[in-house]
Please model this.
Amino acid sequence: MLKTLSISNYALIDELQMQPSPALSMITGETGAGKSIMLGAVGLLLGNRADTKVLLTEEKKCIIEGVFEIGAYGLRDFFETQELDYETPCIIRREISPSGKSRSFVNDTPVRLDVLKELGTRLMDVHSQHDTLQLADGKYQLGLIDAFAQSQEEIKTYKAAYSRFKQAKKSFEILQKDALDLQKEADFNQFQLDELSSLTLQSGEQEEMESSQEVLENAEEIKQKINELLNLFEDEQFGLIQGLSQVQQGLQNLGRLAHKFEGLKDRFQETFIELKDIADTLGDEEGKVEIDFEKLDEIRDRLSKIYQLQKKHGVNSVEELMKIESELAEKVFQVQNLDENLKEAAEKLKTAEQQMLAAGELLSDKRKSCFAVFEKSLQELLSGLGMENAKIHVEHQQVAPSSLGLDEIEILFSANKGSSPQALKKVASGGEFSRLLFGIKYLMADKMALPTLIFDEIDTGISGEVALQMVRMMQEISKDHQVICITHLPQVAAKGDTHYFVFKDNQTDRTISKIKLLNEDERISELAKMIAGSNPSASAVESAKELLLQ
Model:
């Protein structure tokens, strides 16, 4: 329910605020005074797009704010989904800056325009005589039937089944495409896999073989150089070890003569041990080095094959080749299991389709079960609104599955006796359409659970008893819903719980629109002017009083 509406710097409105009745509020005013401007501002609050042309003063920001009581409308899940603070009352604000930038807020949290629009559709429903396009839309008509049939559970079940079907279909189609691609590449992948598998690659082997190759290629020279070094180390007369042994003995003797030389002995001992270890290592390595041309050829051949495959696949290591081998093995495995995988996916798709169609049939049956009651109920309402010969027919045909179900419907209408019902966009005149639209909204009010309904001159083209019947129906709706009605008929305006008057203020150098909540005397005066013009007679004033008392 809308508790407060505030508008600033919008079109002809400088500052405007209203607190509509929780039941039925009437808004009247002269043509061009700003009633439609207010609706435009409400539209921005509900997510419509805007530009800087809406600014009254181009240097100032336009701000439109609505305070809504939402505690009874089950919106907590929506707020949690959108990561918004759930508060009641809820404050929605829209700002348009002089630069044209638009910002939207829910409880002071910035939101995208699509979020604001979705929330707005749950808070207010604005209807006018210009709603022909919406009512003529098949999707909107299907929504009316669903609301009338109370098919929310069937819709939920169908949508879940439809989603599973779409996912199963997508998975099957992807698998089909992958299968086609894999089959095209199957022989080539198998050839590459065999080529890699034949080498039985081992992690780290390339570095090991390259080191072995280096030694084998220089084996003779390496043995020669090692033996030369060993001779230098181990010659009995002139070898390095023999000479160092003498030095070691000399340092020991020196250390016995003076303690200060013992440190030199210890330092030398470490060096001596390390040099002996080097000599021993050289001796070990000399024994390991072998001149083996056959082994060298084997290593060269294997490394050559590895290098060729690395170049072919654009990699630099055996580990990368092994990864490619694993990927090729997976592709080959997939090809070998294609038929089984496709069969399994096809079965899942078939099951999902059957479940979707079954859910769609249940939804379709629920929809069709209400057609006759919907037609009869709407025809009775239209008869009470002065259209005794009105005929309503819901035309149905089954269509391919979509997110909306298996049904396509069109509401056909005829206002005159002897005329066959036709599509709404072809047959309804302005006054007839206003009554048809109002009748549908009256019929759907409780079923669609809309907190606030706004009727914008929906009484255009009607008068007399029909207008009275229409406003009585508004009063009936307002027992459970907030209703705001913009009207030009005094007999309608008189039935509101509150009456707002929109007028132009020309006291400054710029015309601006204002709104005023009328007290009883002001209300009588305004109704009298609506009856008899700007200078109402005494009888018009009395008529206005009678309208308020009826």
